[in-house]
Design brief:
The chain has 19 helices and 22 strands. The protein is an alpha/beta fold. It folds into two domains: 165 residues, 3-Layer(aba) Sandwich (Rossmann fold), CATH 3.40.50.280; 319 residues, Alpha-Beta Horseshoe (pyruvate-formate lyase- activating enzyme), CATH 3.80.30. α4 links the parallel β6 and β7. α2 runs parallel beside α5 and α10 crosses α12. The site of iron/sulfur cluster has 11 residues, from α7.
Length: 536
């Protein structure tokens, strides 16, 4: 069998491990092509593999690379909620008990990181010994150094020591309290006076951002070299985890960091991805485009992760065309100005029409818009306005292929909408848009409503949900399994409706209240109150 890894072009130099190096497995709970396309996974792997005091092997669902037989540490990067099933499968494959309390001194320390666990780790808390909250640039070295200091101690001592490091969360050292077994979450507190009462997500403030450490034709985006242009987003759309959880907004300096990184990558491939929650917000984005427009880069394919609607100029469209990109995606959220005000999207319908016109003038063939239904305060009239806006774009900019991708609003921890439930009307609203748009020849791509319900469940879940997750894993990850799990486990946790659809009181204790994000809860309450002023 041909190795998954033979094609890799490394952009860092792995260290030679010392004889007493710590054996460590760093896993991505999905296939290699997916994992190796995650910039976060690449960077963490390279950081670990660059240390001579670690002996690092990689593990994916479909392959492994030099994994040690008796690891002392096993780590996971979790990018998608439902990949938890694969985390548990891989733990069993490694003969490690899936619940942390079942592990003994003979088992490795299991750590996790990545966007899903940083947002709300509680539904998964019982599966991990350690969760790293925040930017890896800071946390990884501190985690490994702290482990080195207690390497020969027993497990309890190791975990107690690790819990002292800012950003390192050891869930088993915190005890939640509920109002009865299936009642509401009440509080969570350390089990020992020596454990910090709160864990604060760590923020990296250095002046370089992440870039690919490996390029391979086997990546889901074949042979792509990824450059993180910005981190976070200053726009603060009230539903947006990518903005609220990763504040403050940071940019990679163009001359000192971005251009040298791009030139390094383009020496080994001709495909580049510019990543970030809002890349066109980079203050020197025009100059970055000019750099890529030099003749030596004519053959380079450029992909942009996201484009702010009011930054779509004909020049941007021309640059993308020149670099082999035929379409552009803009997030508009809704056709209703009122809904855009509720979510704090500073964008008018006229600006959306101008962006579409610019895309066409610049030569792009297609425009994908991204929207949402079920936003708090949304009415059916707002949804009708989305259908009307799409029809207006089609009328004013004929010949541009239009697609509307549409999801259901899902509340996310650490955002001002964390107290809001999923609107049960959202499914009907998606179907309405489907009927209206497809009949006009506009491509409509809805995301599954039931999938959004599961996302919301995990997003606002507490630790009792781990039993639901295990049940679903055993019975097959279908919607019916979730419903059956709540029926069977009803005496051990609140109903599904409580987690997913109910509007929570803003004074209600939250399962993640001991884990501090960038903004205090009082600021989130203020932003929620501001959103409500637009709902009348
Ligand atoms: S502009 Fe996009 S990335 Fe920025 S806050 Fe709004 S939705 Fe999030």
């Amino acid at each position: 069998m041909v190795s998954l890894f033979f094609d890799e072009h490394l952009l860092f130099t792995p260290a030679s491990s010392t004889s007493d190096a710590i054996p460590l497995i760093f896993a991505f709970p999905n296939e290699y092509s997916v994992g190796i396309t995650s910039l976060g996974y690449q960077v963490v792997w390279a950081t670990l593999a660059s240390r001579s005091d670690l002996n690092v092997g990689r593990l994916f669902m479909d392959g492994q690379d030099s994994i040690p037989s008796q690891p002392e540490i096993v780590g996971f990067s979790l990018s998608w909620e439902l990949d938890y099933v694969n985390v548990l499968d891989l733990l069993e494959q490694l003969k490690v008990p899936v619940r942390s309390h079942q592990r003994t001194d003979a088992h490795p320390i299991v750590f996790g990181g990545g966007p899903v666990l940083t947002a709300n780790p509680e539904p998964f808390a019982d599966f991990f010994d350690v969760i790293l909250l925040g930017d890896g640039e800071l946390l990884l070295a501190e985690f490994v150094d702290a482990y080195q200091a207690v390497r020969t101690s027993d497990r309890a001592t190791q975990l107690f020591h690790l819990a002292q490091i800012p950003g390192i969360y050891v869930p088993s050292l915190y005890e939640p309290e509920y109002d009865g077994a299936n009642g509401m979450f009440q509080a969570i507190a350390p089990i020992d006076a020596g454990i910090p009462t709160q864990v604060t997500k760590q923020t990296y403030r250095g002046n370089t951002l992440s870039t690919s450490t490996v390029v391979t034709a086997k990546a889901a985006w074949e042979s792509i070299y990824m450059v993180e242009v910005v981190r976070s987003c200053p726009e603060l759309c009230r539903f947006c985890l990518a903005s609220y959880l990763t504040l403050p907004f940071r940019v990679a300096p163009l001359a000192k960091s971005l251009i040298p990184a791009i030139d390094r990558g383009l020496a080994v491939t001709n495909r580049i991805g510019l990543l970030g929650a809002s890349v066109t917000q980079h203050p020197e984005f025009e100059a970055l485009l000019q750099h890529l427009n030099q003749p030596q880069y004519d053959h380079v394919r450029v992909s942009l992760a996201s484009v702010r609607t009011n930054t779509v100029t004909a020049q941007l469209a021309e640059t993308l065309i020149k670099h082999d990109t035929q379409s552009i995606t803009i997030a508009v959220e809704s056709g209703s100005e009122r809904v855009r005000q509720i979510v704090n999207k500073k964008l008018t319908t006229d600006e959306i029409l101008v962006a579409a016109a610019n895309a066409k003038v610049g030569g792009l063939k297609a425009l994908k818009l991204y929207g949402m239904v079920g936003v708090p305060g949304e009415s059916m009239t707002d949804v009708e306005q989305t259908a009307a806006m799409m029809a207006e774009i089609k009328k004013q900019v004929p010949g541009l292929k239009l697609t509307l991708g549409c999801s259901t609003f899902v509340p996310k921890a650490h955002t001002p909408f964390q107290w809001c439930g999923v609107n049960p009307e959202a499914d009907r609203r998606l179907k309405y848009l489907q009927k209206q748009l497809r009949s006009q020849g506009i491509d409509f791509r809805p995301e599954s409503y039931k999938g959004s319900v599961v996302q919301a469940l995990i997003s606002r879940g507490d630790r009792r949900l781990s039993h639901v997750l295990e049940y679903v894993r055993q019975c097959g990850a279908s919607w019916g399994s979730y419903r059956r799990a709540f029926k069977e486990l009803g005496d051990r946790l609140p109903p599904l409706d409580f987690y997913v659809h109910q509007q929570w009181d803003t004074e209600q204790p939250l399962p993640w209240q001991h884990l501090h994000g960038p903004l205090p809860v009082t600021t989130l309450q203020k932003h929620w109150a501001e959103a409500q002023t637009h709902m009348a």
